[in-house]
Amino acid sequence: MTLNTNPLQSAAGSRLLRDSAYAQLRAEILSCELPPGAEIREGELAARFSISKSPVRDALMRLEREGLVTSTPRQGYRVASISLADVHDMFHLRGALERACMERITTQASDEQLQTLDRFRRFEAAEWSGGFIAYNRAFHHSLAELAMNARLKHQLGELIDQMERVVRVSVSNVKRGNPDTLVKEHCQIIDALQERKHKRAERLAEQHISAASKRVIDAISRFVVVA
């Protein structure tokens, strides 16, 4: 029997294991399936994924660089706690990035592309398996896509993803509200974009993010132990 010792195939297989473990853990952290502060054991993850500790450790180090995981010598890894200062910073950056999107969209997107935003003019829970959070996330990802700036899209997309767990924690600690107000805000932004009024779109986007920031920060500061 001939053993496969091709170093390129071996490297590709190792990278696939690392990427798979990373993607799964990241999804569980962002969805709060692994909540803030949860302990993460390398051995348990290795057994769960049927892999060695090495790709698990690589995945955890990558998540640590993203600020989603923390490590303590001789104590291992934990899901990063939620810092109010970091939440403030994320919303501030998101506001700046989304304002930058508005002018790009009004000057770069075609009429046909702008019309694709019409699907966000209403929210029906049956149409979104992840509920309102999934609908809202898709709307803001669509804005990043329509800006047609690869770097802006990447940075805003990453930020939206990382903020998902903050939003989920805040939603879980307040009474479920009526999404109609937020959908109305989305409709106003869509109107301004389709009319190519970028100054109005910028102002509406800033107000939208500012209101979201206040809701989220009020919720997590009242009910969640934060760093």
User: Helical region count?
Assistant: 9
**How many β-strands, per DSSP?**
3
Q: What's the gyration radius in Å?
A: 20 Å
Number of domains: 2
CATH topology of the largest domain: Four Helix Bundle (Hemerythrin (Met), subunit A)
Measured between the Cα atoms of the first and last residue, the distance is 57 Å
Order of helices and strands: HEHHEEHHHHHH
The biggest beta sheet is recorded as: 3 strands, antiparallel
Task: Please name the fourth-level CATH homologous superfamily of the largest domain.
Answer: GntR ligand-binding domain-like
Work out the oligomeric state of the chains in this entry.
single chain
> Which strand order does the major sheet show?
1-3-2
- Residue-averaged pLDDT, rounded? 87
SSE topology:
Layout: H1 7-30, E1 39-40, H2 42-49, H3 53-65, E2 69-72, E3 76-79, H4 84-108, H5 111-115, H6 131-146, H7 150-172, H8 180-194, H9 198-223
Antiparallel strand pairs: 1-3, 2-3
Helix pairs in contact: 1-3, 2-3, 4-6, 4-7, 4-9, 6-7, 7-9, 8-9
What does this protein structure show overall?
α8 packs antiparallel against α9 (198-223). This protein is mainly alpha-helical and 227 residues long. The model is unreliable at 5-10 (pLDDT under 50). A hairpin with a 3-residue loop joins β2 (69-72) and β3 (76-79). It has helices spanning 7-30, 42-49, 53-65, 84-108, 111-115, 131-146, 150-172, 180-194, 198-223; strands spanning 39-40, 69-72, 76-79. Strands 1-3-2 form a 3-stranded antiparallel sheet.
